[in-house]
Write a structure and sequence with these properties.
Blueprint: H1 9-20, E1 23-24, H2 25-32, H3 38-50, E2 54-59, E3 65-70, H4 72-79, H5 96-123, E4 132-134, E5 138-141, E6 144-146, E7 150-155, E8 165-173, H6 179-194, E9 225-230, H7 235-248, H8 255-260, E10 263-267, H9 268-274, E11 282-283
Helix pairs in contact: 1-4, 2-3, 6-7
Length: 299
């Protein structure tokens, strides 16, 4: 019998690691148990590894940094839990070689999650570790899809009571692609915003019949805001990438989309230093401004 504390920390640790794909020991500690000693988190991870639910790779050139990921068995176990049911776990997450190749980006995505989780704890708001969902698949039909690095849920207000629930698609850029390719992602989200599924041979709605709706409306009452988090480059590189995002917004086809969907960019370094609730975000249509991330285009 597997010795998993199904009502507490073991279950949360496996659920978080399955959802996030990868995390260092320190990141796991900050996500699941920041108020206890680090040694307790190390023991918990070691136990889950002994039970075959998670594994690790060790980076000797980085002070023997340990990076954890779920095994195939761990993913199978956790995917049956209600809190993860219906998610699409990464196919490569349980392979050590693939984990090593994906590690840089995956750990930066996890670090981005932490700036929001930590901020909610400091402010008494609500953003639990599982409110950050990496790689949510959104079909565009014909085999195409938009897959944000993460979907974020964050409820403002003390203890998340009566405050607005904010949703955001988050794209984490480590300067591994050119600025123009990064900026092209805005067009992909515009396509998702307008995408209406069709069935071959489907007739046009008859008079008085409700027309087909955009696919995203099945999951979100309003289209989530779009956040670009920039890392892997200095201030000059961040400025270049924000300029590229701004240039993409000059396409007239995006005008209506950008009027209704906030699209913001910030450096990960600024989020760590000041917190994501501070005015460290640049609206891509007005990159010289800085606003808070819950800013609206109507503000």
């Amino acid at each position: 019998m597997i010795d998993v504390d199904s009502g507490g920390g073991d279950r949360l640790a496996l659920a978080v690691l399955t959802q996030y794909r990868m995390a260092t020991t320190e990141q796991m500690h900050r996500l699941i148990a920041p108020d206890v000693r680090m040694e307790q988190t190390r023991r918990r991870l070691a136990k889950l590894r002994d039970e075959g639910l998670i594994d690790r790779i060790t980076l000797p050139r980085s002070g023997r940094l340990r990076v954890w990921f779920p095994t195939s068995y761990g993913v199978q176990v956790a995917s049956e839990w209600p809190e993860l049911r219906g998610r699409r776990p990464s196919k490569t997450v349980s392979d050590p070689t693939a984990a090593r190749l994906r590690m840089g980006h995956a750990l930066t995505v996890t670090e981005t999650a932490l700036v929001f989780v930590d901020e909610a704890r400091r402010r008494g708001e609500l953003c639990r570790p599982l409110d950050w969902i990496p790689e949510v698949y959104h079909s565009l039909g014909s085999g195409e899809a938009v897959i944000p690095d993460a979907l974020l849920y964050y409820r403002r207000g003390r203890d998340g009571e009566d405050g607005p629930l904010l949703r955001a698609f988050v794209e984490v850029d480590r300067a591994t692609m050119g600025p123009e390719r990064l900026a092209a992602k805005i067009t992909n989200y515009h396509r998702l915003h307008n995408y209406v599924p069709t069935t071959p041979g489907q007739r046009r709605p008859a008079f008085g019949q409700e027309p087909a709706r955009e696919a995203w409306r099945r999951y979100y009452p309003i289209f989530p805001r779009l956040l670009f988090v920039l890392d892997g480059t200095g201030p000059a590189g961040v400025t270049t990438r924000i300029r590229a995002l701004h240039a993409a917004t000059e396409d007239p086809a995006l005008t209506l989309f950008l009027r209704t969907v906030p699209v913001l960019a910030s450096a990960l370094a600024d989020l760590r230093t000041h917190g994501p609730s501070q005015p460290v975000w640049h609206p891509v249509r007005e990159p010289h401004r800085t606003v808070v991330w819950h800013w609206s285009p109507d503000d």
